Amino acid sequence: MKNLINFLIKYSYVFLFVALEAAALLLISSDKSYRQSVILSSCNDFAANMYALSNNIVEFFNLRTANNSLSEENTELKNEIIELQNQLASRQLGHADSLRYRIPPEMQYRFIQAKVIGNTTNKMLNYITLNKGASDGILPDMGVVSESGVVGIVKTVSEHFSTVVSLLNPRFQLSCKYQRNNYVGSLKWHGYDYRFSNLMDIARHVDIRQNDTIVTSGLTMTFPEGIPVGTVDEFHIDQSDPYYTIKVRLTVDFRTLTHVSVIYFKYAEEEKSLQNQLLEEDGND
Known about the structure:
alpha+beta; elongated; single chain; 5 helices
């Protein structure tokens, strides 16, 4: 008898646990529908959270594809706008034969979408590599832009790839102008900071203000007029200097550059041939 009592005392917690489990089962059986609804609701909440987590993961990995699609759609829309402008101009002119000579040059451009697969910003001579080449219609000397503004100019082309002289390269000078007053200057990077460049050849009599907008001048066949380049960050001029020293904050963030558009000018070869002819004639004089 003493041993039995000792046994019951020793395993009293086990017996208490079994008794409580039995009581819990009894309660479940007595209110089965309510308990099932609670359990079902908890399972549904858990499943919903798992579906949401799975969906977020899928969306994250599809983000790159979505960006590529958006870039291609933007490029197609740009080309459609230019085509519509050409059609409108032809109706206004009424003479299709003279269309190419009388439509403003910027309406003879179209854009080729490309992805950046190589880019440097911390060197003195910076270049960008694109995933499009000659088979896609890319040629040397074509301008390259992003949604934010000017990026650079195509230098070399292979069948499926091309390299671009970045705006962050002192070998590339860009003809720009003040959007407010049309004064033209040359933009050239001096190699200090990827966020800034320098505008040169602006005479001291020109009215310059901080945050003035700088755009492409349209004086070269590479870029249409009015593409954003940057804004005036700071400027100064010494008493003896004929030109301002102007620091321009670039509109393009070259550290985050992923997609660009290469500019195809319909009459580039014709204009280049004419310019070369003039140079040859000047050389012979």
